[in-house]
Amino acid sequence: GAGVSQTPSNKVTEKGKYVELRCDPISGHTALYWYRQSLGQGPEFLIYFQGTGAADDSGLPNDRFFAVRPEGSVSTLKIQRTERGDSAVYLCASSFGLDYGYTFGSGTRLTVV
Amino acid sequence: EDKVVQSPLSLVVHEGDTVTLNCSYEVTNFRSLLWYKQEKKAPTFLFMLTSSGIEKKSGRLSSILDKKELFSILNITATQTGDSAVYLCAVEAQGDDKIIFGKGTRLHILP
Q1: Residue A10 burial (CB < 10 Å; 0-12/13-18/19+)?
Q2: Predicted local confidence at residue A101, as pLDDT
Q3: Would you say residue B110 has pLDDT above 90?
Q4: Which of A78, A108, B73, B79 sits most deeply, having the most CB atoms within 10 A of its CB?
């Protein structure tokens, strides 16, 4: 597609539930990143994919968070047993590589009630 | 620990004013500094700076990097209400695959 697409744009879920957030990157971009942005903060790195593999998952806060990119294109961020502190905007970005800069999606605003 | 500090955190000016946004950083093996504009959710790319003293310019926006003093500024001249946004500064390190963001400067332009 023309840009990075994220769905849903908004998600409200109850504490303890499981959620999946989807990112569809720009066609041909091999690198895909997930960031989380809390209110009043800059985006914080979660995980980076190069192709199908997670090259760096050092930003995932705990084992409730997991992400996959099985075919090297679409990625899904999965959060188990959601907590109120998980409420944030989850941003996805894709790139041909670091020298080319990132293109961000519009994000998914997750609210855990 | 790598970090990016932006100032001011918020700024309110009148249309037509000129503003300067600041970004200081500490990073091991600096590779580049980036500026983004975030209006609603998606940050949009403004500039990538890798060399000291070379100004990057795009319309009314310009930016410069000082690698000795470890800071960058983003200037916006003749501001317009459409410039209202959060401006994010970020740095990349050599051999790293992620960028570290500051908290941003929230700029509000009054008509």
Answers
A1: exposed
A2: 77
A3: yes
A4: A108
